[in-house]
Amino acid sequence: MNLRPPGSVRIIAGHLRGSKLAVADRPGLRPSSDRVRETLFNWLQAVTPGARVLDLFAGTGALGFEAASRGAARVLMVERDPGLAEALRANAARLKVDVARVEAADALAWLQRVPTEAFDLVFLDPPFDAALWQPALDRLGPWLAPGAWIYLESPLKTSPTVPEGWRLHREGNTRDVRFALFQRGNGPGQASAATLADDSNPKGETPE
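RESULT FIELD:
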């Protein structure tokens, strides 16, 4: 799927609501749509405030900045493209997002480092043509806090294998995209599934 990226995306809610992030015309750059992000952050409304967030394959930073806007305590964005990484830093400065930090690094190589911190919430949305979900999932474990939440976005017909012990909390789809939220068990200080959005219809569709 090689869709041309939109010119900009907007932050949906929080203190940065309405702020726009430019979208560069880069191969594989495909920001999560407004509708998908709105659905995701409705699921995460009890989790995001105070969370330590890791945005891998950050791209425009749409997910990371949305989390910061909604009260995340810390947001680390990892992006290997130097131009995109510099744009992330510029947007963090322009929007005065002091909780955001940008690492200009390849996400898979970065995950192989010795972990120096643990994250409560991880966004995993790599370029669709690169098939990076599985190696990223396989290396992510040491960076996760007990009870961490992991968001995974992939093509509609792609279902990466998640590590043992992860529980699917919610999932949905658009015409082209499957998006799913998993939890790595439950741990002290972590929101349980019962505190999140109603699970009465865990497989919803988001039309596009």
